[in-house]
Amino acid sequence: MKPIMIIGSGHAGLTLAREIRALDKAMSITIVSQDPIQAYYKPNLSKALSMNKSADQLIMKQFDALKSDLDAELLENTSVLKINHEKKSILCQAKDSDNKKQETFELPYENLILATGASPIELPINGASGNVVSVNTLQDYSQFRKMIKDKKHILIIGAGFVGCEFASDLSSNGYKVDVVDRAIWPLEQVIPEQMGTEIKHAISKNGVNWHFQSTVDEIVKDNQGTLNAHLSNGAIILPDVIISAIGLSPNIQLAKDTSLLTGRGIVVDEYSQTSRFAIYALGDCVEYDGQSLPFIAPATLAAKTLAKTLTGNKTKLVLPPQPVGVKIANYPTLICPPKTKEGSWQINGVDQGLEVAFYNNENELCGFALSGQKISLKGEYLSQY
Shortest CA distance to 130 belongs to which of 227, 216, 35? Predict the structure, then answer.
């Protein structure tokens, strides 16, 4: 029997393998990953300093333990070069311990799952290449920790979920932090100004400078090796390290090369199937009803549902509203992003206890955010959907 073939060993891919194995002890599973195959909780990357954990300490399971637990074939440091959907096979190329490419080889599959994730959006800024780091994987985080050792000043580009979490984590651990964003307040796309202002003030207590309605126009490294970040408002910041946190772009090139239907992400139906028979997709690389959902909860639910389909119990994926916790040290916040921009916010409470709800033009609840003690109202809001 040909195996279930999973491309990608992030949360989505490993969760799918685990769920399949729980349902079927005999089904053959192969996971192919261009990265080392290790299990870790990705949201911890932006709060690991406060957790006092190194990159290695964030690893929950190493290769051998995963191989044993999943009873699966694991191929790490292996790239998928091509999918032959007619032959139902993939063409692969591994790298050896010296990072040298080996000969290509072909693997057959019964069903193929793309769990290729998403990559940081590249900054269209002069001088960004080689001078800006993005933290999207455990390997990125390991490099980042080495970069900030014995450093004091960090510049973060982007005040969204990841940017705010890193600003909180770094400033809480003694780093001087500057944040640049073209928005007017933090998390502007998903919360109203009043809550954004409270988040700004909370993070600022540890010494964060905000530069809103601004962009980084150019990054220059002078003769002494000092970084100079030139902002559109005329300011010049001299950080030790620059982080980009402007968002992720789904990894869809392999899908496009296979002529799968794609938009911003890989387009799937209610069973997570792509436009090609026996090829499925889930996680950060997917577009659900025109939306990318780069969060743990939808990827977990998609994996659980797809596992049922692949083991013979065809099951539709239904994604309920799923609030996301924002890891800010002194301002606990829960956000269920609005599903539309057409509508208005209703705001109750003050300071640490805010509840904000977004209603569309038909007065239907389409999103909400809660802070402090108001987080206890989560169930009440979810019941209104």
Answer: 227
If phi over 0 gives left and psi between -120 and 50 gives alpha, with beta otherwise, what is residue 52?
A: left
Closest CA to 329 of 200, 168, 121: 168
Q: Which residue has the tokens 């809480």?
A: 172
Query: Which two three-digit tokens encode residue 50?
Result: 């406060």
How many whole angstroms separate alpha carbon 129 and alpha carbon 249?
Answer: 17
Please name the residue that has the structure tokens 């946190």. 245
Query: How many angstroms separate the CA atoms of 138 and 55, rounded?
Result: 6
108-125 per-residue burial string, b: 16 or more CB within 10 A, e: under 16: ebebbbbbbbbbbeebeb
Tens digits of residue pLDDT in 195-226: 999 999 999 998 899 999 999 999 999 888 89
Contact 37/142 with Cβ under 8 angstroms? no
CB atoms within 10 A of CB 223: 5
Cα–Cα–Cα angle for 136, 174, 130, rounded to 5 degrees: 40
| pTM of the shown model | 0.92
List of residues 6+ apart from 114 with CB closer than 8 A: 7, 8, 254, 255, 266, 274, 279, 280, 281, 282, 285
Q: Alpha carbon of 59 to those of 46, 62, 208, 247, 326: distances in Å? A: 15, 7, 30, 24, 22
Q: What are the pLDDT digits (tens) for 122-143?
A: 888 999 888 999 999 999 999 9
H or E element in which residue 331 lies: none
* Helices and strands counted in the chain (H then E): 8, 26
Half-sphere exposure of 201 (CA within 13 A, CB side): 8
Please tell me the distance from the alpha carbon of residue 303 to that of residue 323, in angstroms, as a whole number.
Answer: 18
Residue indicated by tokens 């191929």: 75
What does the alpha-carbon distance between residue 19 and residue 305 come to, in Å, rounded to a whole number? Answer: 9
Distance between CA 32 and CA 6 in Å, rounded?
Answer: 6
Question: Looking at the chain, how many residues does it have?
Answer: 385
| Eight-state DSSP code of residue 283 | S
